[in-house]
User: What shape does this take?
Amino acid sequence: MLQNEIHRQVRQKTELDTYIGKFLNNRYLIRDLIGKGGMGRVYLAEDVAKGGMAVAVKILSMNLANQQLSQRFAREIFIGAQLGRKSTHIVRVLSYGVTEDKIPYYVMEYLQGKNLKQILKNETLKIPNILEICHQICLGLQCAHQGVSIKGEIFPVIHRDIKPENIFIIEDDSKDRIVKILDFGIAKFLTEGTGITLAESFIGSLPYCSPEHMEGRKLLDVRSDIYSLGVLMFEMLTGKHPFQIKSNSFSDWYQAHRFEMPPMFENIAPQISIPKELKNLVMACLAKEVSDRPQDISQILVVLEQLQRKYNNLISDKQKNIQNQELLHLVPVTSLSEKICLQKSWPKNQPIAPICFSDLLPTPQGSVPTFWAMLAKKEIAKFIDNNNYTEFIFQKNLYPMILWITVLSDAQFQLTRWLSCFLDLKDIKGQKLVQNLVNTGYYHLLFFALEDPTVCVNVITLTLSAFQRQQLLDWLDYSQKVNTISSLNESKTILKTEYEKIKSDILQKLVNKQKQTRFNIKYWLLNLYGHILSLFPRSSLIEEGRTRKVGKTKRKLVRDSSLH
Ligand SMILES: Nc1ncnc2c1ncn2[C@@H]1O[C@H](COP(=O)(O)OP(=O)(O)OP(=O)(O)O)[C@@H](O)[C@H]1O
Ligand SMILES: [Mg+2]
Assistant: This one.
């Protein structure tokens, strides 16, 4: 049903859109329409010169009638492309050109996620998220305002069209949000000398346009972008635009931007607690006179960074608590189920090869999640009682599956083995296994020797942190709610790529875990030692000199342990 609907939509788009299915410049195969705005359409395309790499192509809805216009287009895009190289917060422009019909287009990195408009429509952002997004926008803007150097000359770049549609947020489960600004250079090109009037080209952007920009002042400076950023921040904080106008006309917007005072936060969103410094910052950005606004982005960054530090302190206190809780691993009563594991033999339907798979083991105490691995006999001995770490990867919007990873290493980190297998969350077996991992908080890893695969040679038990269990539960819930169109194999490929990317991070976690374990043992031994000493009355220690020495040692022990 869903597939039919998708095919129908694609067919409809293909019928309406002359570009879909065609090549641009013999290189970019236009696949699908991503969206359209006031000045053009953005398509998903394949760069055939780069093995079919996904790219986004923006084709402007205009005709470059003369040579001069073509040159100006090339110049503005070229400057925008320099910015994408300088800042991770500006979309990368890969190439640009003009079609046979003299229609300008440019090719960008393809971003996965949503623009800020789509996000604000569906969610209310929390203050730390808003601070983070604004911080990243400001980093991008600062880089542009500082300018690019062309033939030794510095050209500051003003965006001129900062609005939620032009702020793109890459969403990735494993990493933090990355914010990118889109469409640098385009507004300048379109409003200067193309014959398009401001009202025509900016009808969608008027809600974010500075008063001086609306007045058509030629010499706009960075403070025009700062005004637009102010409107954006107001909207992110309150969910509402500062000005409610009667009609979407140029004159109504001009009236509001030039003369109307933005409402107080208390009146428009009394339920939201916004720090005073942030309210003042937004109001300053919205000042009618350019001289009353922050004069450059660095002034805004100072305030945002101060606020972020404040919030991060609050958050890191919370995180410390979580980490402390994570140290409290429950030691499961596993001797019985471990014994059952040791009686197991390698299944006949599995190859005799260094592989890993999962299974749910029935025991008198209930089902226990297990992973079975086959390795060389001498390697197995090195991993018992040594370092191990569990990690798993999942990505939203794909066919739901988890890539489960157990890393084993010997005591000196000279030998490392990566065991991995997929858990299919659409399959009842996969769901049950994950549910059991959540419930029990541990799993057994059964070792079988390649040389003699008949019987399990050893078994170890690995525990999951409270945080990992919560993550598994969240993913299990999520996967039961969503309908995805990607295939199982597509999902596997993406997860495997992600796995390769995070291998070094996992190794670092393994090393950190070992350090933490050593510290815990040292701390426990020190406490035990101190406790034993306190059981002896001082008089029972034979010599006077010895007593002093013990007293000194004990004081040192207390100091040592408080260091960590
Ligand atoms: N590099 C990209 N990767 C993925 N999606 C993109 C990319 N660039 C733009 N988009 C998306 O394409 C859609 C259309 O973008 P477009 O810039 O044409 O629209 P707009 O910003 O609303 O209008 P305007 O023409 O005024 O810029 C938006 O949803 C945008 O988020
Ligand atoms: Mg845009």
